[in-house]
């Protein structure tokens, strides 16, 4: 029995000046493989189940297979799996097994990176990469993780077209949105913005800064066919608009600039109760006629339904 795995490659600190772009480490990972041969006594099915647990965080096994898995779990020092197989109660404070690959975005995972996600231009001051000298904010990623998380990227990598061999994929979102996208890919969870008192003490511009990355991700998710991420972003945005309606005009403006019309309509709906107030204050003057009409139409619809307008 054998397993093909990645070789020993240069650590980030060992990359020479010739490899400062990060390409050297990626080419090394693609160019070599290491064949690990296991003992003939290692049961193939038990090994497959062990790898399934490592990648998915759970498994199902009968009594006979569980016995073989206990041996492997003990040898591999997988205490969480060993406890479950031995039917022991977990100790207080023990971390619950979950699939969280965020550590792969750190230094230990850079050696296996084979693709870079590059964010759009930003005004971030002092942004630097610990691995390469590329000045643009970017993330050293792994095609196997991206493929398993996004149908669009999986199709791109398998297409055989020129784009499928690119070492850098330019993504039209800010670095702040890129960080949240990385969390979605590597942990399966979308980070939430501050809530409660932390949210309430923010001014409108600070709140907008927190919410704008979710608007960007919503638009990208529609193009990249990531429905779960889109729904999660929508929930965050709607929740924030519900608690801070004064954000609605600003979110409407941002969504329209990004051509995210579904969110623009949602923002217009939340702005509808404030229509008269917005007209009197002159805030609608910052919008073009089409967006003003969206808010007006939402206000009329609210009035016809018997809704209350803010005075």
From TrEMBL:
InterPro entries: At1g04390-like, BTB/POZ_dom, SKP1/BTB/POZ_sf. Residues 113-194 form the BTB domain. Pfam families: BTB. Pathway: Protein modification; protein ubiquitination. It comes from the Eukaryota. PANTHER family: BTB DOMAIN-CONTAINING PROTEIN (PTHR35918:SF1), OS06G0674800 PROTEIN (PTHR35918). This is BTB domain-containing protein. It comes from Prunus yedoensis var. nudiflora.
């Amino acid at each position: 029995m054998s397993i093909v795995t990645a070789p020993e490659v240069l650590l980030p600190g060992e990359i020479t000046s010739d490899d400062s772009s990060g390409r050297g480490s990626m080419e090394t990972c693609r160019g070599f493989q290491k064949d690990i041969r296991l003992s003939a006594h290692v049961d193939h099915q038990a090994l497959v189940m062990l790898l399934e647990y490592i990648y998915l965080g759970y498994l199902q096994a009968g009594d006979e297979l569980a016995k073989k898995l206990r041996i492997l779990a003990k040898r591999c020092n997988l205490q969480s799996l060993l406890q479950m197989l031995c039917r022991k109660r977990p100790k207080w404070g023990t971390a619950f097994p979950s699939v969280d690959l965020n550590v792969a975005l750190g230094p230990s995972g850079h050696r296996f990176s084979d693709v870079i996600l590059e964010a759009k231009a930003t005004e971030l001051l002092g942004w630097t990469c610990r691995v390469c000298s590329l000045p643009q904010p970017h993330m050293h990623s792994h095609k196997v993780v991206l493929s398993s998380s996004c149908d669009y990227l999986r199709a791109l990598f398998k297409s055989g077209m020129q784009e499928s061999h690119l070492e850098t994929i330019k993504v039209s979102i800010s670095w702040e949105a890129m960080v949240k996208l990385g969390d979605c890919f590597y942990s399966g969870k979308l980070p939430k913005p501050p809530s409660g008192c932390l949210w309430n003490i923010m001014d409108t511009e600070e709140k907008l800064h927190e919410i704008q990355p979710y608007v960007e991700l919503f638009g990208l998710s529609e193009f990249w066919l990531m429905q779960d991420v889109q729904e999660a972003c929508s929930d965050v945005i709607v929740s924030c608009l519900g608690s801070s309606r004064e954000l609605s005009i600003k979110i409407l403006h941002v969504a329209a600039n990004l051509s995210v019309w579904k969110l623009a309509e949602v923002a217009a709906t939340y702005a509808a109760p404030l229509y008269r107030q917005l007209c009197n204050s002159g805030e609608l003057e910052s919008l073009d006629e089409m967006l003003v009409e969206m808010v007006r139409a939402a206000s009329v619809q609210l009035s016809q339904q018997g809704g209350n307008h803010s005075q």
